[in-house]
From TrEMBL:
Keyword annotations of the record: Cell adhesion, Glycoprotein, Membrane, Signal
Cell compartment(s), UniProt: Membrane
One GO term (biological process): cell-matrix adhesion
Membrane-spanning residues: none
Protein family: Belongs to the mesothelin family.
A single cellular component GO annotation: cell surface
Protein's name according to its UniProt entry: MSLN protein
Gene that specifies this protein: Msln_0
Length: 167
């Protein structure tokens, strides 16, 4: 339906008020389509707020979006800073474990919005959390607020992490 809607909306060119359309619609446009109305950074900031699960995990479109986002944001290695993590939004759900490890805690807030994780992502999340080198600090210092912020990651925590969280 969204793919069909994009065709109708863009029938006479890309509308100038594209930012006012539902974010999910943008999943079916390319950054070059969007370029007439804004920057690629703005495009991916909007994509990061979209329901990425409209596209199947591992689909070519979803993979292409992530690669284009990394190129746009000039992320050449595997380290993602906090600003770029915010722009990527839900696209961080498709980053591999090496990105999660290299980025330290920068991705945790966005990762907590993901519906599921691959085994290497789970291992990387546990490694970053266990290190305590995040803005959230070590699990022994966490509060109810911290757990609320990271609630989407709780299913990934293993016994060694859970036992350190204060009751």
């Amino acid at each position: 339906q969204l793919s069909c809607l994009v065709k109708m909306v863009t029938l006479h060119g890309i509308p100038q008020d594209l930012d006012s359309y539902p974010k999910d619609l943008l999943l079916f446009l390319s950054p070059s389509d969007y370029a007439a109305t804004g920057s690629c950074r703005q495009y991916f900031a909007n994509i990061g707020k979209a329901n990425l699960h409209v596209l199947q995990r591992g689909s070519s479109r979803r993979k292409r979006l992530l690669l284009e986002a990394l190129t746009c944001l000039e992320i050449n290695g595997t380290q993602v800073n906090k600003e770029n993590a915010e722009i990527l939004g839900r696209l961080v759900c498709d980053l591999g474990g090496e990105y999660i490890r290299s980025s330290g805690g920068n991705l945790l807030k966005q990762l907590s919005q993901c519906e599921s994780f691959l085994p290497d992502q789970e291992e990387a999340i546990r490694s970053v959390i266990s290190s305590g080198n995040t803005t959230f600090g070590p699990p022994v210092a966490w509060s109810a607020f911290t757990l609320n912020e990271l609630s989407g990651l709780i299913p990934v925590f293993d016994h060694s992490i859970l036992q350190k969280i204060p009751k």
